[in-house]
Amino acid sequence: MRILVTGHDGQVARSLAERASDHSTLELIFAARPDCDLSVPGSAAAAIEAARPALVVNAAAYTAVDKAEQEPDLARRINAEAAGEIAEAAAAVGAPLIHISTDYVFGGTGRAPMTEDEPIAPLGAYGWTKAEGEELVRAAQPDHLILRTAWVYSPFGANFVKTMLRLARDREEIGVVDDQRGSPTNALDLADLILALAARRLGGDSSGWGATYHAAGAGEASWAEVAADVMRVAAANGAPAATIRSIATSDFPTPARRPAWSVLDMGKLEETFDWRLPEWRPSLARVVTRLLDEG
Ligand SMILES: NC(=O)c1ccc[n+]([C@@H]2O[C@H](COP(=O)([O-])OP(=O)(O)OC[C@H]3O[C@@H](n4cnc5c(N)ncnc54)[C@H](OP(=O)(O)O)[C@@H]3O)[C@@H](O)[C@H]2O)c1
After folding, report:
1. CATH class of 2-158+186-217+264-278
2. 52 partner at 20 to 30 Å CA-CA among 149, 164, 170, 230?
């Protein structure tokens, strides 16, 4: 059965492509630039109408959190308006939609893992455009799953883990913020979940659809703890490893504010779909080892 995925080279899109080999009944097609450009109104809808997929996964987004402060209109176009158009087009061809959203819809003042019912309070353009995208998806395609994930890394594209390994080649010490806590997520683990949910849905099981779920790696960490783990695995593999020095967010000013606390509660996902993403530490070790092996 044909699944249309938006984006091609993104971390989640590439993870879906890799993990699809575990699902012989699913055929993935990718609607990506230059043919499908979410900054162009109607572009994604045309791709969906032409392909008439059985299910759509919206894995594309404007993800440059800091740059979004300088170009909020483009971020809104891609994260909100295009998400709404994708949902409308999916509904028009009768395809359920899995839409990926973010922990950055939250303001991050809490101290307990956040459930889906927590009020949203985005701190920047990326967060509020993604929050608006969620609303437009809910309005246009009732047959949806919104999966809020967080702190995504993978063997693909640009991400924090790859940056840490690169910096460790030239530096003995790296300062990393230790006062933001979240739910590190291996995109390959998220892809396994998305494909399993798609396969169940296309097999006729629609229980739990029409709702929003938190879907991130199990456990919690600060960025400095993630970085320290990257270095631990690098050192164990004989690769360059730097010392991680904890710094405060105020020591590392960025154009966009980020939530200090964005640990997600995954209880609803587990109760509804009997699915729990792996603990972040062993999952991170798998990606770091793979990146070191691949050189
Ligand atoms: N990265 C994170 O830490 C994180 C955290 C929470 C939630 N999320 C969410 O997870 C989802 C996947 O993120 P990711 O980490 O895979 O992001 P990513 O690696 O930055 O990839 C972004 C994807 O969006 C596509 N894209 C961007 N602008 C586009 C445009 N104008 N037209 C068409 N496609 C466009 C890219 O296209 P190309 O294939 O052409 O490059 C790429 O496939 C997004 O919804 C994101 O908001 C990510």
Report:
1. alpha beta
2. 149
Percent of the chain as helix, strand, coil, to the nearest 5: 45, 20, 40
149 Cα: distance to centroid of ligand 1 (angstroms): 12
Per-residue pLDDT for 164 more than 90? yes
Looking up tokens 């400095």 gives: 224
Query: Cα–Cα distance between 143 and 260 in angstroms, integer?
Result: 33
CA of 7 to the centre of ligand 1 (A): 7
Instruction: Please confirm, yes or no, whether 126 is among the known catalytic residues.
Output: yes
- Is residue 44 within 8 A of residue 38, CB to CB? The reply is yes
Q: Which residues' Cβ are closer than 6 Å to ligand 1?
A: 7-13, 32-33, 36-39, 59-63, 78, 100, 102-103, 130, 149-152, 157
Q: pLDDT tens across 101-125, in order?
A: 999 999 998 889 999 999 999 999 9
| Tokens describing residue 48 | 């969906």
Share of the chain above pLDDT 70, in %: 100
Domain spans in the chain, listed from the N-terminal domain onward: 2-158+186-217+264-278
Q: Could you give the count of Cα atoms lying within 13 Å of 204 in the half-sphere of its Cβ?
A: 0
Rounded-to-integer distance, Cα 89 and Cα 43, Å:
11
Residue 76 has a pLDDT of 98
